[in-house]
Amino acid sequence: MVTPYLMFFDAPADMLVVTGTDGEIGILAGHTPMVAALAPGELRLRIDGQWRIAAASDGYIEVGPSLAVVVVNSAEWPEEIDAVRARRALERARSRLEDPDTSKQEKERSRLAFRRAEVRLKVAGKMADRAKGDFRAAALPADPPAPADHSTEK
Q1: 129, 135 in Cβ contact below 8 A?
Q2: pLDDT tens per residue across span 43-100
Q3: How far apart are CA 123 and CA 140, in angstroms?
Q4: Handedness of CA 55, 109, 82, 72 (dihedral sign)
Q5: Integer Cα distance of 107 and 97 in angstroms
Q6: For residues 113 and 104, what is the distance between their CA atoms, to the nearest angstrom?
Q7: CA–CA dist 118, 105 (Å, integer)
Q8: If residue 107 lies in a helix (H) or strand (E), which one and from where to where?
Q9: The predicted structure's pLDDT at residue 53
Q10: Counting Cβ atoms within 10 Å, is residue 60 exposed (0-12), middle (13-18) or buried (19+)?
Q11: Per-residue pLDDT, 132
């Protein structure tokens, strides 16, 4: 798995689960070759029977006979996520989505920013829950507000 800034993960894994634009995609050894677009979401790796999770942004995955290459704009392990910063980003995005003066283009950017922050908080929350001994999935933050329908374009 690679981002524009670093090789995020480069080791064998038993299974890989990524968030595609149409839902989750599970990859095992011998998977049919494919290329798919990725949406911001949780990325899960099973390594020696243990699951490891990360927050990943949009990108793509290319699966070959013996290798999966994941290219995303950003990726973070739970312990690297600053939950306070992610919560602020979520609130900024929510505010822009609720603002009737926000342009359509800015609303789309805000929807993506909201989803990225939401994923980061979900992954960080799972790490915190596991540290407390609670292995159930952490709840997602609230859905982004629906954009107001305004007849004038900006």
Answers
A1: yes
A2: 999 999 999 999 999 999 999 988 999 999 999 999 999 999 999 999 999 999 999 9
A3: 9
A4: positive
A5: 6
A6: 14
A7: 20
A8: helix 104-131
A9: 95
A10: middle
A11: 54
pLDDT of residue 152: 46
What token pair was written down for 64?
Answer: 């070959």
Q: Is the dihedral of CA 92, 93, 95, 99 positive or negative?
A: positive
To the question of pTM greater than 0.70 for the whole model, the response is yes
What is the DSSP annotation of 54-82? EEE-SEEEEE-SS-EEEEES-EE-GGG--
Nearest to 126 by CA among 55, 46, 57, 58: 55
Q: Please give the average per-residue pLDDT across 10-35, as a whole number.
A: 94
Paired tokens of 19: 């968030």
Q: What are the residues whose beta carbons fall under 8 Å from the beta carbon of 142, sequence distance 6 or more?
A: none
Nearest to 122 by CA among 19, 4, 8, 26: 19
What pLDDT shows up at residue 130?
53
Pull the structure tokens for residue 138.
């952490």
**Going by C-beta distance under 8 Å and a sequence separation of 6 or more, which residues neighbour residue 76?**
54, 55, 120, 123
The whole-number pLDDT of residue 136 equals 42
Q: Which two three-digit tokens encode residue 23?
A: 């839902």
